[in-house]
Amino acid sequence: MFLTIVLACLVVCLIFSIIKGKPRNFPPGPICLPIVGCVPFIPSKYLHLRMEKWLKQYGPVVGLMLGSQPAVAICGPTEVLEALRREEFQGRPENANFRQENFNRKLGVFFSDGPFWVEQRRFTLHHLRDLGFGRSIMVASIIEEVEDIVKELRQREEFQVSGYFGPSTVNVIWALVAGARYSRDDDRLQALLHALTRLFRRGSQTGGIVNAVPALKKIAPQISGYKENQEHINNLKAFFKNVIREHDKTFKENDLRDFIDVYLKEMKYQSGNKTSTFSEDGLIITCFDLFAAGAESVSNTLSFTVLYAVLYPEVQRKVQNMLDDVVGRDRRPHLDDRPRLQYVDAVLYEVMRINTVAPVSPAHRVTQDLTLNGYNIPKDTTVIASLWCLLHDKEHWGDPETFRPERFLDEYGNIVKDEWMVPFGIGKRTCLGEVMVRSSLFIFYTTLLQEFSFSLPAGHPPPSTSCVPGITTAPQQFRVKISRRY
After folding, report:
1. Is the pTM for the entire model greater than 0.85?
2. Residue ranges of domains in the chain, CATH in brackets
3. Is 431 annotated as a binding residue?
């Protein structure tokens, strides 16, 4: 009986996919099969590299079918900039995977859209700023975390870099969100970071085969990876729910400690409003969004900075000489030193450009019928845009495969702003935590290079610059030797 039902569902899906097909005047793209669409020809790993090939094969705008759902991959640099800036591209996908992960609604600040997203993003950003986001309170938290790392590394001769910075970078944002800080070896934090890493490494910007064929959730939950993903997501959501419930027990309206308290206050204030966008589920997903952003973007980029310090020791020495001249050795680097350390910013820009942590922007959704490059893009089409193609365009950068921080400096050593340098995205969907990421990178990187020199352990080959794939990228596992500078 079960097999009959499954076969009947597959036949219905087949008929529907044949009838629907690609929209008229849709961009060219890979072969489209019944039921699954183009999904077999969309890699689960290194999608950004495949999009680079699609740019040459099909052009800057590529038409896809994710099962029966139309999608476009935007690979041309100028088209990426146009799409990410246009109002009609600012929606989030409607697929069942995203909804299920978000309590079957669009919640939080990452995968929501429309008026709900506008209100939640404005509220979140406003109150994080009030709590110290982008100001001295956040900087103090960053300094506390980097000093903790320095203290630990002083006891070592070498360390495994990949994943090392996760606990510290999460603590920076979590101090504002939940008023908590975890030790680096906290078992609960390590379990959460492991779950998050698995989600990012296994995930796909297109939603993968399960999104194209939702029946796989029931037919093959383990083989498709759906079961493991849901376990990780449920564990993370349960953790945030417990933190919120503990906050609620000790909540005092006249003593707001952190973002969770601020959100709880707004929930209570709007408790009788049926149109309120504030709920416990919404707070859980917002915590999820902020925790995930802190764990991945800062941690992985810091690992890449150490990677390039080892691969380019002359760059490392130049940064250290500047730190000695500008900061000295009697105090730590501070954000106020930034105007006189523009070469440091150039190095960080180049790290983010050559190995951007988010090579493909999070999936967008077209909110109305439109045209792009002369092609019809129907309403609700999923959009994936390649930041990698933008940051590695040979015509614009000249030698994009070469690590060369000087490309961001003028003849006087001042930073040159480049409108194509958008590792955090561009437009209304620009990364919410860009200020935190830039501040964290600067303080962590300068403090570590003021205190230590990094090199390859004896007998170790140079580490690879190729990335570990996933929704975000991370460096391959590698170890470095630590030498205290004084």
Report:
1. yes
2. 2-484 (1.10.630.10)
3. yes
